Amino acid sequence: MKLDTSGLESFVPLSAPIDDLCPDLSAPPTFDLPRSADFDGFQKDAIQMVKPAKGTTTLAFIFKEGVMVAADSRASMGGYISSQTVKKIIEINPYMIGTMAGGAADCQFWHRNLGIKCRLHELANKRRISVAGASKLLANILYSYRGMGLSVGTMIAGWDETGPGLYYVDSEGGRLKGTRFSVGSGSPYAYGVLDNGYRYDMSVEEAAELARRAIYHATFRDAASGGVASVYYVGPSGWKKLSGDDVGELHFRYYPVAPSPTEQEMAEVSPA
Amino acid sequence: MARYDRAITVFSPDGHLFQVEYALEAVRKGNAAVGVRGTDTIVLGVEKKATPKLQDSRSVRKIVSLDNHIALACAGLKADARILINRARIECQSHRLTVEDPVTVEYITRYIAGLQQKYTQSGGVRPFGLSTLIVGFDPYTGVPALYQTDPSGTFSAWKANATGRNSNSMREFLEKNYKETSGQETVKLAIRALLEVVESGGKNIEIAVMTREKGLRQLEEAEIDAIVAEIEAEKAAAEAAKKAPSKEI
């Protein structure tokens, strides 16, 4: 079905020389349309099918002492848990880390590539690159691959001359500066705990505990998140891994099991 | 589309790149330019040839700014300069866009020098016929810097330097008389160096002063005349002191 766009016709010269510089303007401009009822929205389903869901929970926030970054460690393929021990916090250089959400290969490769670019910048300019600059480099690269199927939802956290820096960068080419981010399928749950407990002036231990609890609660409710809750801290002297706790153990730490009276009775009776 | 595969700048048997050396000759014929770095001020000065009566002198600015904190003066082929300056200005903005930070003086000097070098190693092109003096303040540390590039693509940092016509005499003068200066003293030093080779007077000299706070400022002819008068007075006083017999032994 060809749409008639003769109404859009512009003025046509009487003589129509046909060569590279002056294409024939006498025919009305037309273009093919897809053969379906809904030719505005038929592509949306196709895009949704290939758009990989980012099954993970990662979070990062800036507070008085620096940046706290935490993530789970589960990789899932649909309903199958392919790994419980994935490193989702990637070390770009001694003072900058990135989180992984989306395609594992994409995140790992492009973070490593970003590390290379940051080092080259240091060597050429005799000064470290800022977190703003590093995140912009990554965002520009991802933008140039926009629409080609990369799936990256990452947070770049670091400490530079201007202090702590936190940027969210994704494969759509978006880049946001902020103080609190959570990325992944478990992020709504993490945001609930994080936003509730957040205060700017926390100590490092308090902030680490908040991050740990937020990841734990996300893994509790979200099927695609689980494994180990890793917590990293980025301060003036660089990043440091603070803890890596199995979320199953965290559950019993937060909600210890007290034996009910009936269970206690049965335990006493059974040997007899 | 014709592809240029013949290089113009090729080595001579004894290791010279004659095209580059000829370009340096072109620089030596260009008007004199001087740059002096002080502790808080950097001064660029250029010789201004007599403007024809009908020419609008404001359209021939020889000292240009590349960004808010970087300025450039050059000696040599002015048409080549225009191209190089445009590319440098674009690079300054491109850097701001990609890393969200202004360029350092060293970065933009490296870029301009790299561009000049590329044209000594490409097919079908000749080198740029100009040497540049690039000045500015480091946007992070506030340290003033003065760099010079030449047609071969080399660059280095200087406390004070001169290029163009009679640059050797100016450099000799600067070597003899350079000391760490600030503010108006730096301006005077630059003008004194220029006056060694240029006819004295405000209409033969163009001076621009760069400070950390105010950026680049072109001095008015009247201001330059006033400073020149000061310098001449100082010179006359020094001469008189020399001639007068010294009474203390």
Descriptive notes:
The complex is a heterodimer of chains A (272) and B (249). Chain A has helices spanning 42-50, 104-125, 131-144, 187-197, 204-221, 247-254, 261-269; strands spanning 58-63, 66-71, 75-77, 80-83, 89-93, 96-99, 153-160, 163-170, 175-177, 180-183, 228-235, 238-246. Chain A is of the alpha+beta class and 272 residues long. In chain A, 37% of the residues are buried. With 249 residues, chain B is of the alpha+beta class. Chain B has helices spanning 18-29, 78-99, 105-118, 167-177, 184-195, 221-243, and strands spanning 33-37, 41-47, 63-67, 70-76, 130-137, 144-149, 155-157, 160-163, 205-211, 215-218. Helix content of chain B is 38%, strand content 22%. In chain B, helix 2 (78-99) packs across helix 3. Classes of the chains: A alpha+beta (272), B alpha+beta (249). The interface between A and B is small, with 13 and 9 residues. Chain B: It is found in: Cytoplasm; Nucleus. Chain B: InterPro entries: Ntn_hydrolases_N (IPR029055), Proteasome_alpha (IPR050115), Proteasome_alpha-type (IPR023332), Proteasome_asu_N (IPR000426), Proteasome_sua/b (IPR001353).
Concise overview:
By secondary structure, chain A is an alpha+beta fold.
Percentage beta strand of chain B: 15-25%
How many strand units of chain A?
A: 12
Quick one: overall form of chain B? globular
Oligomer: heterodimer
Question: How far apart, in Å, are the first and last alpha carbons of chain A?
Answer: 85 Å
Beta-strand residue percentage of chain A: 25-35%
Let me know the number of strands of chain B.
10
Gap from first CA to last CA of chain B: 81 Å
Characterize the largest beta sheet of chain A: strand count, sense, and whether it forms a barrel.
5 strands, antiparallel
Whole-number average pLDDT of chain A? 86
Biggest sheet strand line-up of chain A: 10-1-2-11-12
